[in-house]
Amino acid sequence: MIAQAHSATLNGIEALPIVVEVDLIGAREPKFVIVGLPDKAVQESSERVKSALRNGQFRIPNQTILCNLAPGDIRKEGPSLDLPIAAAVLAATEQIPASELAGTLILGELGLDGAVRPIHGAVNAALLAHEKGFRRIILPRWNAPEAAIASGVEIYGVETLLEFAELMNGSLLVQPYQPRPDELRPHPTYEIDYSDIKGQVHAVRALEIAAAGGHNCLMVGPPGSGKTMLARRLPTILPPLTLPESIEVTRIYSAAGEKGGKPGLMWERPFRTPHHTASYAAVVGGGKNPRPGEISLAHLGVLFLDEMPEFDRGVLESLRQPMEDGVATVSRVSNTLTFPAQCCVIGAMNPCPCGFKGYPEAQCVGSPATCGRYASRISGPILDRIDIHVQVPRLKPDELLDLKPGEPSAAIRERVMRARERQAQRFGAAITNAKMSPRQIRDEIQVTDESRQFMQQVATRMNISARVFDRLLKVARTIADLAESDAVEKRHLAEAVQYREIGW
Questions:
Q1: Which are the contacts of 457, defined by CB distance < 8 A and separation ≥ 6?
Q2: Averaged over 98-106, what is the pLDDT?
Q3: Which tops the pLDDT comparison, 394 or 303?
Q4: Torsions phi, psi for 394 (to 5 deg)
Q5: Which residues pair with 76 in a beta bridge?
Q6: Residue ranges of the domains in the chain?
Q7: 270 Cβ partners below 8 Å, 6+ apart?
């Protein structure tokens, strides 16, 4: 008798359907053979499944167990196929009804004692179950809150192989998982706030514009001026994630195994800060079995590149496509994967290697040539893709001693959300000003005659490229949205222009 169970495997962040087939073959030396392009973790499932069956007091056939994972041309990865393999063995030996496996998607790693352990990619598999019309999904109980977003699919969380078998045999003790109201839309809380910031009103304003329009930003200032402190608080002024956005973020983190032991959906905007020694694969994505990189883990959040010139030149240049298109493409001989990467890229750097060029706090010890080489580590094309450049000077003693707190994040966030609402009404979709196409720039940005004349003067004086010209208009449109103005006025353009003028 051949028994079948349905499961899924991850290809990047996409879940692909897998059919687990088990056939029992008479043999003098019983073996457990798994075919169908399994990786090492899947090959080791045979030992985990046998031990779990034995310790769960299930009958192990004295025959060769041939397990096929179809389709055979897709590489199967990870231990999440343990439970469906065990289910197919139990059905083949008639310890559970084979008919109960129809319409059921099964995932789970097995411990040697029969415990069902958490897996990666539960939300991805749940979305697949909804798309393919499965009536229920059975997976580790810890993953049930994450999978509960699949509408029209019953979610069963089990803790042991014995509990799974009881469910298959009709036990009423195992009930579908019902999410609590606080799991569906919790409000994220932050331990940090912009009220902690003293002074730096100009930099906070620049980051408010970046948050409102989804713009990239580069902060330049001497050591200790507060660049990292400013960047870390950016998620606190971004609008809360919507349910579709939360699902998108959770898909990426669940597939990458980066949830950090948190059950359910993720509701906080991501903030990723890779070290400047991070490799291309770590930042953009890749590896033997390609995984999302830091820029994809920052999707719908913030990617903070501290000490930006210290990053490898190739790593920085690889960010061109994600910064422009909002996706990161990882190509391999056998496969090409595309990961979402729509985030605010925030860079921070010193003006020179010692950090004090142009500042009175200390004398710069570098030669002009050394300082020039340092600044040139960030190429012109990357700088063109950064909409906002802002100076962050060191605070003066009277500012450091000022006990008056800065403006709280909640107040800034209210303005950002109103600006985002204007953009949603304008574009009819979740598109920020930073993502406007050239046609949308022409159609949606209403420039007065005075503003048009001003921009002609700016373009001539600054000798800017067409890309920078468009980005100036996008930033000005965001500033106008924050001011709740329909037209882009000269004052909005003037403020946008000042965010392109940084002396190196």
A1: none
A2: 95
A3: 303
A4: -70, 150
A5: 38
A6: 2-179, 194-429, 436-504
A7: 235, 249, 253, 297, 298, 299, 300, 301, 302, 343
Q: Is-contact 202 502, C-beta < 8 A?
A: no
Q: What is the mean pLDDT of the chain?
A: 89
Measure the CA–CA gap between 312 and 139, rounded to whole angstroms: 42
100: CB partners within 8 A, 6+ apart: 91, 168, 169
Burial of 120-147, coded b for 16+ CB within 10 Å and e otherwise, reads: bbbbbbbbbbbeeebebbbbbbbbbbbb
Q: How far is CA 297 from CA 219, 303, 376, in A?
A: 22, 8, 28
What's the length of the chain?
504
Domain 2-179 has CATH 3.30.230.10: yes
Averaged pLDDT, 292-316: 94
Distance CA 318, CA 307 (A): 17
Whether residue 71 has a cis bond before it, omega within 30° of 0: yes
194-429 is classed in which CATH architecture?
3-Layer(aba) Sandwich (3.40)
> Under DSSP, is residue 456 helix (H, G, I), strand (E, B) or coil?
helix
Mean pLDDT value across residues 229-238: 95
CATH code, residues 436-504: 1.10.8.60
What the block records as the tokens of 135 is: 């009536």
Across 431-460, average pLDDT: 83
d(CA 348, CA 332): 32
Structure-block tokens of residue 96: 């559970």
Ranges assigned E (strand) in 287-394: 291-292, 302-305, 327-331, 336-340, 344-349, 388-391
Triad 421, 426, 345: Cα angle to 5°: 65
Taking the C-alpha atoms of residue 482 and residue 480, their distance in angstroms, rounded to an integer, is 5
d(CA 279, CA 287): 11
pLDDT value for 455? 82
Task: Evaluate whether 2-179 and 436-504 have a shared fold.
Answer: no
User: Of 198, 201, 163, nearest to 86 (Cα)?
Assistant: 163
Quote the tokens at residue 174.
């195992």
Closest CA to 256 of 158, 121, 138, 415: 121
CB 253 within 8 A of CB 363: no
Q: Quick one: how many helices (H) and strands (E) in the chain?
A: 22, 18
